[in-house]
Amino acid sequence: MPAKTVTKGGLKMQRVFSTEGVHPYDEITWERRDVVQTNWKTGETVFEQRGVEYPDFWSVNASTIVTTKYFRGAVGSDVREWSLKQLIDRVVKTYTAAGLEHGYFATDKDAQVFEEELTWLLANQYFSFNSPVWFNVGTSSPQQVSACFILSVDDSMDSILNWYKEEGFIFKGGSGAGLNLSRIRSSKELLSSGGTASGPVSFMRGADASAGTIKSGGATRRAAKMVVLDVDHPDIVEFVETKAREEDKIRALRDAGFDMDLGGKDITSVQYQNANNSVRVSDEFMRAVEEGKEFGLRARDTGEVIETVDARELFRKISTAAWECADPGLQYDDTINDWHTNPETGRITASNPCSEYMSLDNSSCNLASLNLLKFLKDDETFDGELFAKAVEVIITAMDISICFADFPTESIGQTTVDYRQLGIGYANLGALLMAMGLGYDSEGGRAMAATITSLMTGQSYKRSAELAKVVGPYKGYARNAEAHKRVMRKHQAANDQVRTLHVADAQVHKLATQAWADVIKLGESNGFRNAQASVLAPTGTIGFMMDCDTTGIEPDFSLVKFKKLVGGGSMQIVNQTIPRALRKLGYQPEQVEAIVAYIGEHGHVIDAPGLKTEHYEIFDTAMGARSLAPMGHVRMMAATQPFLSGAISKTVNLPETATVEEIEDVYMQSWKLGLKATAVYRDNCKVGQPLADGGGKAKKDAADAAAAKAEAAGETKVVEKIVYRPTRKRLPKSRVSRTTSFTVGGAEGYMTSGAHEDGELGEVFLKLGKQGSTLAGVMDAFSIAVSIGLQYGVPLETYVSKFTNLRFEPAGLTDDPDVRMAQSIMDYIFRRLALDYMDFEERSMLGIYSAEERQRHLETGSYEPIVELSEAESLKTEHAEVVDVETKDTHGSEAREVPARPVVGEAHTSAELLEKITGTAVDSPLCMTCGTKMRPAGSCYVCEGCGSTSGCS
């Protein structure tokens, strides 16, 4: 780029968020925190920085992740950043200086307004740039601002080896790349020398090994990459089945005793594990699948059909492989290129690893995401006008970054400078819809999401046209002007087709309609500064930076969250959006309190006291008892896709019981609804993840599968079946027991409970006074069943969670001071057993407290018993993964500690907490950095402990 850009006047910046004459930092209360990060498995301290400065409303998690990930300078040195102010200033002042240098602003005053508006938005968590900006901008490192890259490879050895090299440089910098291998000749075609070509799958092995080696050489996350192959490539079947075959290998090696967990020492022997695979399908192929026709596979050099296949059979193989191992996903080629603004330059053939950035080969995209919940007004309507103003500031900053950015290769740098692709998006959509009382899988929820997305992209292109007038359109615009304007008209037409359902979305839709009218008008006269404007990224790490409840376009992961506390330790909380939603729906304070308490105890809203069944859908989540149906995810993506320049990073989750036919339906409906890409994940379909110990059911399943294969092949094989059975732990002949008399709603009874020598409950016997012989027999049978279950290892906690809150007569007042009301005899019995045999931490998660503990809560705000200091310190060490030892304001005065409700067992993230509450495994890998369990975020995974992601952030 030239040192000085010729401009026409520059932008006049409007002050909206900041206050004239007052610096944004001066409107915030700041405090000092100590950040100590430990590995919860080993107890080893992996990071420590004391006295870091943050706004008092930033969570402990946000400050910890930003401190560990984004602060520059050696830890412990004088040059190490220690305040959020330093971090934001480093980035914002670089952007402002570049804007002045390249003529973006009409006056120095406008530059100052831009700087203060951008600072205000960042400090108040209204948006965030992607991670490379925080890593690199304003430092001595190369000023790389992009997180997403697309490469290209041709059918030559020079090009293939160059692909390995370029990918390696990108991985080294912590970013991800994708490319399409369809130009490489298939293994069914001849070389000029007369030999047979190796085919693209063989070259994938080398690239996969390179990615794995660079990852293990010190990267903070797995190498993220995408490999795409066209559906008409002759090697398509081999490509489709590649990872499924490797999954079979993983199962065999695991059952032989090898360490096949993700990151395990033996997993490196398995190939193709470092990439996401996608098949690029055409409309022609999808129609052939619908009609049951043959489909031709074409030679790469001549384009002639060299083989025909049954389209439905190939589609079934794709879906079967996805059912087995979650790969491949589908990318819909004709849809993608129909929305392409630069077809005269070249087709879109690939995407970044998370599938949201789709553009020209050898290009890159820098991302930024807005926190939607920040724009929710007090009346629970969305502030579209304020949102549009924020978009203007952010798009301006993102375009400025391209002026000074560095790139990993010369070709990527040239394409990015010439086409200036941007990727503005958002996070917290799931939380926003819940707070507004809208179900994620509802017409109202989809209408709201569509109008917000339309306004975001329309306002982005409007500002892009305004920038084109000031600093000129992108260099490739002239040759693509008609195509670009055609796509703008397609966006406008899609906006006109949105049908609003309530006042809130109607207000936003009106603003979006005006924005698109301005886009058409300004674009006609000015052109556009950017070839693309928007994508929906997974927002992993930056979602934590903004304290978002939900990532990207995702619904809420679960209603119960894991939260780190100032002063150390952690606690279980109910998503704070829920009370807001309940108030919006008209529930009274006491009803809200009861429902929130129920959710905290059960993790879902089913049978919550006073909650209307028609409101259940508002609280549906990605995981748990009321998880969203797969097509609910697809329909939400379809509602927003027409208003995005790129695509959406999102995986459609299916239960373990899902069939291949259901995956086929998801892929087919995604195409019909106009999505650009779809990925699926069936729970527990992958073995190479640390989700279980690999024994028990997994080994039995493997043995059963082997036997079935042998039978199908007509072979006689001896298959060893390892069956694991529980062992009964009988009570001694003489044991300690207690007998409790009770009255529930006037009905009298007696409970005798016996314990093992270690105090663990082992038997329960119930006797109800003045009851008929039939009921007495039923109670005896029930007692025997529970007792045998306890002796075979069923945790008492499981019985308590299942039998408390059962409602039937007799019910009402009891004579027990610890359990004053009971909804049934079963409710009373298991509450009493919990108080007698479970420790405080276990009971607190189930909401069961003694009279003494409830009184203590009234007096001190905490249920917890008073413990000696040394014991308290040991508890903190046990539970804290990230410990903020001390919280002080800027003058050093100590802040009041927040009373905490301890988390269940050894939970360290929301994913683990959900597993503890529901008893169901959450299918996610462990973090490669700190060892905690990650949770899904778009097509990737994100760690709540340290902020690491498996893809874009």
Automatic annotation (TrEMBL):
The keyword Repeat does not apply. One of its GO terms (biological process) is DNA biosynthetic process. Residues 732-836 form the TSCPD domain. Residues 34-125 form the Ribonucleotide reductase class II vitamin B12-dependent N-terminal domain. It catalyses: a 2'-deoxyribonucleoside 5'-diphosphate + [thioredoxin]-disulfide + H2O = a ribonucleoside 5'-diphosphate + [thioredoxin]-dithiol. Its cofactor is adenosylcob(III)alamin. Belongs to the ribonucleoside diphosphate reductase class-2 family. This is Vitamin B12-dependent ribonucleotide reductase. The lineage of its organism: Bacteria, Bacillati, Actinomycetota, Actinomycetes, Propionibacteriales.
